Records
---
Amino acid sequence: MLALLLPLLLVQDDPFARAEQELRALVAANPATLTLEEWGRSREDRPVLLLRVARAGDVDPALRPSVLLVAGLDGRRVDDWSVVRRHVERLAAADGELARSLTSRTVWICPLANPDGIARGSASNGAPEDEDRDGLEGEDGPEDLDGDGKALWMRWRSPEGRWLVDRDGFLREADPRATSGARERAREGADQDGDGEYNEDPPGGVLPDRNFAQLWPEHEPGAGRYVLSEPSALALARVVEAHPALGCVVVYGGQDNLLGKPRRNDRQGRRSPTGVLEEDAWILEAMGELYRETTGRKGKDHDPWPGRFHAWVYAHMGLPCLATRLMAWSDEDAPKEGGDAKEGGDAKEGGEAPAAQAPKEPARSEAAEERARQVAWLRRWFPDALRPWTARTLPDGKQVEVGGVDDDALQRLPAARLADLEEKHFAFLTALLGRLPAPTLAEVETRRLGEGVFEVEALVTNEGFLPPRTELGGRLDRPRPPRLELVVADGDRRLPLLPARTAPETGPALLTGPRVELVRGLAGRGSHARTRWTVRTASPGDLHLLLRQEGRTLADRALETKEGR
Amino acid sequence: MNGLHHRGALAAVTAALLATGAARAQGEAPLAEPTGVEARAWDHFVDYAGLVKLMEAMRDRWPEWITLEPIGKSVQGRTLWVMTVTDRSKGAPETKPAMYVDGNIHGNEVQGSEAALYTAWYLCRFAPQVVRLRRILEARTLYVVPCMNPDGRDSWFHDAHTAHSSRGGQEPTDNDGDGLYDEDGPNDLDGDGNITRMRKRVPLGQGTFRLDPKDPRNMLRVEEGEQGDWILLGQEGGDDDGDGRVDEDGPGGYDPNRDFGSDWQPGWIQYGARTRPFALPESRAVRDFLLSRPNVAGVQAFHNSGGMILRGPGSEHVAFEARDLPVYDALGRKGEELLPFYRYMTVWKDLYTVHGGFVDWTYLGLGVLSFTNEMWTGKRRTQGTRELGRDEALEWDHDHAFDAHFVPWKPYDHPVYGAVEIGGPVKYTGRVPPGFLIPEMLHRNAAFVLYQCDELPELELERTDVRPAGAGLAYVDVVIRNLRLTPTRTAQAAARHIGRPDLLLCEPEGVEVLAAGRVRDRFRPEATVPLPERQRPTRIPIEEGVGSRGRLSIRYLVRGQGTLRFRYEAEKAKDLAFELPLR
């Protein structure tokens, strides 16, 4: 009996296994729309899964205009999976316009992008690191001393302490030039390696979302030994690289770039950009407007770039990448000073009330303001994340107080808001499907210049909203531009129209104009490019114009004169 | 006979003379006549199969010193081999400080492979007679990856090429962004096995060149007031894909030496980069090998050409640690002495900007002092005094190589350009020396590698002192010295926390170790700087290691009688163990 129950119990303890099971069940129940692919294994051998959402249509789903949704890069954000799971359920059950859209568009979803982090409930994975530089790795990590289910903080009185308890009960770092602190603090746990420090070398790890190439912070904590050293990050990069029909990537995670003014590049010349290029800023501005209208969110962007996936998607793959936390403490108004945003609570033992202890302070700094927002948000949505300080004695005899803020809860979404958040973000996601780039052969005009000689003029436009290539994509040459080519139709075969110099004496030939025109200049909706050729042919209808991009045929049209083919 | 070229008798004689002289200088018996691989004449280059055969022959000749192992596969499936060279009877390879040597990351820069292998060959060939070489073989490990780009190398030997082509690997690449891969490369139009040049005669006054009256093989650019009747049309080729451009998308088309992970940049910033660092299987193989060998303390990469001893950084936006530069300079200047036609230079400042280069990664990412030698300079033809002009080079080729390096111009009917002439220098000119100068080039570069090898960290216990401190207490001073130029940890490694810090371990027996601290001033040892509180005196991490010809001085405060057993462990030096009895 135990043997039968054990796998179930293990799954219940492992958020990744639970989510994977749910995902596989959804796919099994909706085989016509959902397909699951494995793109790699994590460091601890969990699968990196990619879900394809598409319905049968004329074009291979892999070649259709598509959007990629990524979630779970930060393993603490387990609620993002709840949102994504509901998205998948809706997509699978879609009817009407959305269902039709899924016959010509594809939604790719990488829902659990950091499997090891999700399994352990942390931002990082289990890669070993020697944080305290003593030659050992992960030998002194936090422990849940008070058995409340989380390893939070310890504080203790110390004349050399760097921390003050401020009027709101926060631990605030003291300015050593002005005042000495009264407390020291460390993560909750004993000194396991006996070096006099507490929990200074926890097990793991590398942050997969700091392991990407854009402004990669080499040698900084959590960045990884080299770019894409983490198998899960590499798998995700391969997903993006292998799908050139992607028009846009959306990330549910720890960043927001749709709430304020886009982060701009501030470097000149041929240097890796620190933000979006000026020429591409309109994309984020427009998508931000759409996002805010659709979701009703207000607040501040949180858009760090070094090593982040979303920055890499734009800066190295050339794709617009829209990042959202779905909801964050900064969405809500700041609490009033001295209000109800107390961190933890007063110590039951050991002294004076924090407010009386704290020296007079100037107005809150920006960091303190931010902390106050966080605490107020937690108090409202996750009151259990604010733990009172309680006295404990460590194994080495040290007297400490244990408690404080569970900062991981800042990455959670309130259960009461999940349905609403999901609905609004689903609306945003589906709105994007209608805004994917759509290079189109809008007009072809064939004019007779003389006997057997014709001038052909083609107009290619972008009928979508997003550009086929961003400005940065143009520099990266990714995706490759639409390719316009005059060909000779022979049944289903398409043969190159050769220049007169090399073509047979009789038969069709290209007299002037490019053999292959790479349509590089298309930007947003309405942008266009014209190309002209002169051809020799007895029968213009035998010639076709092909518009192709990244393996996909966008148009294959026979030439017609005003008099007909 | 695979890809043999420029065979000449002089080389074997040169090598034998060098060796004999060395042996006599050591007072040893004269050498016996060499046979087998020992008798190899290093006056020619071989293709990939030839390299593998040579490595196997060396391993078979010196099995107690040489092992071969595969570390990965190239794009086209060729094996990347690493040769490990050390005297195993004196310790396992990974317990000794190691020098990593590679060559031929650029497929056309072929002599790097021979230089890397010659270094191992010379070491093994003469270690039995030459004391200094014997010492290096015993105390150091040499990791040799002679060919980092076997696909590029093989193409260079077996396909028609110029001196400059086949630089990258052979992974098909869409260089012109038209959705097609490698569809318009150079063409050996006349089928002679060379990619040379095309020239076309035009009416007088319409040309930009004229023929050199002294040697009509040479083209002279017309000066003001002159009239030309020839134009040059670039390298031998055509417009294979009919897009109006010539040879714009040849085989490969990327640079493997822009694929490494420090300061890597995408292709629009750094020409030749792939979509991400370590995108190529060859770079990944070398990366994984080096990450698994923390004992590597020096790196030498061989390229051609120009006569340069290069160090990073490759970009002006990257800084090297100032404390490492004096060591770099000392090694580089010695290199200039050993290679009199070479100059010690910094990549971005003295050559050009390189993002994602191999030796930038090995220093910035791994914290290892690293050099690239650009082997061979045309100046060598004039004993280093000057570069020859094109006409003089033709004359030099006529005199020394009997016109072997120039394909005479001959007429050709080109599909695009009409009547043209095809001819010009072959691939064995410009970037590689003629056969009779190969041995000297290889030997001088190998000498530089072996010098660096000798200058890898070597620790000795300089002294221990015990002085009473009253009340049964004693001070124990331990001074450890690095005899060599290379520190056990570079400043880069220390500052960026790369690798494991060195460790000074103390195992007391019958003695109580109460405290320990760093002695910063040898004349005032009482002013010892205590260890940080968290460090135990019996296990002291030394993040900055023992510096270039530097010392580490530690004072312990102990009580009791017994024995202290010390062990200094460094990733990049042989561990040092010693005991100190306290009575």
---
Amino acid sequence: MALSLTVNGDKRTIEVDPDTPLLWVIRDELGLKGTKFGCGAGLCGACTVHLDGQPVRSCSTPLEIVQGRSVTTIEGLATDAGLHPLQKAWVEHGVPQCGYCQSGQIMSAAHLLANNPTPLREDIVAALSGNLCRCGTYSRIIAAVESAAVDGASESTRDGA
Amino acid sequence: MAMNRRDFLKVSAGSSGSLVLALSLPGCASVKTGFEEKDGRWRPDAWLELTTDNEVYFTLARVEMGQGTYTGLTTLVAEELEVAPSAIKPTFAPVASEYRNPLYKLQLTGGSTSLATSWEPLRQAGAEARELLILAAARVWEVNHRECTAFEGKVLHPNGADSLAYGKLVGLAASEEVRHDIALKPREQWRYIGKDRGRLDALAKSTGAASYGIDTDLPGMVYAVVSRPPRHGARVRSFNRDEVKSLPGVLDVIDIERRVAVVAGKYWLARKAQAELKIDWDNSEALNLSTGDVFAHYHQAADDDDGEQERSDGDVSEAVGSADRVLVANYEQPYLAHATLEPMNATAWYRDNGMEVWAPTQAPDLARIAAARVSDLSPDDITINTTFLGGGFGRRLVQDYIEEAAAVAYRVKKPVKVIWSREEDTRHDLFRPAMLHRMKASISGSEVTSWQHRVIGPQILDWYVRNAAPAQYPWSPKFLYDTLGKIGLMAEGIATPKDFSAIEGAVDYPYKLANVEVRHTHTDPGVPITWWRSVGYSHNGFAAETFMDELAHETGKDPYRFRRDLIQHQPRHLAVLDKVADMANWQAGAPSGRARGLALFQSFGTFVAQVVEASIENGEIRVHQVWCAVDCGQVVNPDIVRDQIEGGIIFGLTAAVYGEITLENGEVQQSNFHDYLLMRNYQVPEVAIRIIDSAEPPTGVGEPGVPPVLPALGNALFALTGKRQRTLPLRVT
């Protein structure tokens, strides 16, 4: 099939077997390796990307629902202004150990903050409980999201003033 | 060679001859050292490379799988070289004898040994390079080198005003020679060691830029998926090659040893075709056990054979004979999978009579042997490129996935990437062995008078020597590989070194009792096994520290006071035990509805005490809080120590609450994260960690957080329910 989609702001058209899950299009056709394969069944969250702003497990996302829509991957999170506040917080808190799950963790957290700039701890835990981390970095993930939310909130206060 | 200011300018201008020296070490030294004038690169040793552009590269010989070598080992060399760790670029080491782990005589990362074995050599390497740079600068300035100092990539002139950047000095430093002893910096002068600093790989791992094995991309690369026998030991009788080969995108269907590989231009087309693959397996020699058979086998073996005596203090028989009471308990612990989040994968390219492999591996020199086995190449013709590892935990010490990729690449003569599905990764793991423990203790009055620990189960080296033995002798002819493996000829010609994998953590029972016996009945049911984060310590720790709790209960003593009274002679054990009791305010006890358990355990040279507070909520075990005191000697990066210990706690709790691989007629029953569960964010307890300040040599932290948390949780559940659980995983009772 001819798949047309927007990836991190760029319009792309790709010829691909229609049964291919979105993950393998992102990784092997578009060459964006930051999105990871972990389980192939939507159980671990390593492959999380945004589809029109909503988090999806790309390993289990069929291409027909992607047609004509917009995908954001970890590579598309930073802007010309620099790293996403979550990425800065991830570095400051030394979150990653092996790091393999972290793209998915950050994409899940980015969706949370986009919709809830001042989440409670329970909100963070709920939003991220679909993302497995075998190294056990969970408490640092929570701390990093909390600090990114605080930074984001103070920035928007400044912007408003 | 004397060199003055004029010569310095000549070398700096690049007009003199090249000074490349071969490092002469006995054996097979393979890292070229010296100054390469045309590239402006100076390698003072196997570890460092400095350029005329002021770049500093550090060859990282212990792989980065999350445990922090990338940051920790770089910090060691940075401290003495006087360059900030963040200004150094670590690169993953190729296979070379210089990069072997001195404890194993193999180039492998495991056993929580990276920091301990690098502590002296890497600081020494940094110090020697720094000294050569200082000597070079002193010669240029015509001053006494002892009056020069180094600071942040520069040598400083005694006049306090002038300085020379390392990049200006590399050509000259290459011809200097250190003739005096170099004292390593004293502790109070450290700028980087022992300080909370970030991880050097955190940025790349937060932007998607870090490259793991699975991210390898090569021109013209194809993909392979591999069908492996559902029952270990089965052989391929026949399969529908022609039918599958005609499917869209399929390039070839290949019979490799006991497996069938489907090769396609796209990963998903290989997977789709694999679904149509029908293999007739010959199961005549295949594993046919179920989990219940394994433990029945162990009990029978224990009844038949007392096993080897591994430790004997005093006279346990006499103590048992004269005791008031004897307490006996059996502990059964299951097979456990590694479940690295990056599934097994490897990429191989066979061309021009050589092979190149890109893989997340904990043992690149074993990977070379694995690739040599399945091709017409010798290890010297094979290059292993190690990547970041998406978790290791011991799984990637075994090179089966690299052997597969090499076997396919040898046949297809194209770059080929083999990716395992999660289901394949779980079912074809090599597991933490299931083990049986028979514990026995005698009690007279309120005193424990003897301790007997019998460990029943396999040894891991039996499964590991196949590639490990040839890797120690990479020059040996390939027809000898299996012989070397079979006779276990390891460690420089000594027959197989003592395999402690079954008894580690049992033989080193630390408590002061006059009569102690540890025995091992060596029996192997044939289920594939390997190292797993803390290995033997994980099962021996659960048995020993749970049984200690049983003895405290039986003698009517508080679990903390009971241990404390018996550990007075071991100051480092005692210090972490007292520290954790203080942190948790042990005397105060748990709030209503919750209970606490405690464990004290040493592994990999590191002392750890933990208190777990747990309850049962909505029919599930709920861990609320873990307090942990750790003594790992000198700390290089406190932040990484805390994250490794906390990660170990989560890893151990996951095993305690969920971990279980079961077999049914030889087939593994679990497949993915719906039936091999990992702890999730909402289940994670508060974790408080205190590190004992110590100037003792550093020991490992990747594994020691794991063992005590299993018994500590079990002991908490006993305090909560009054029912003792001696089988893992723990259940709600």
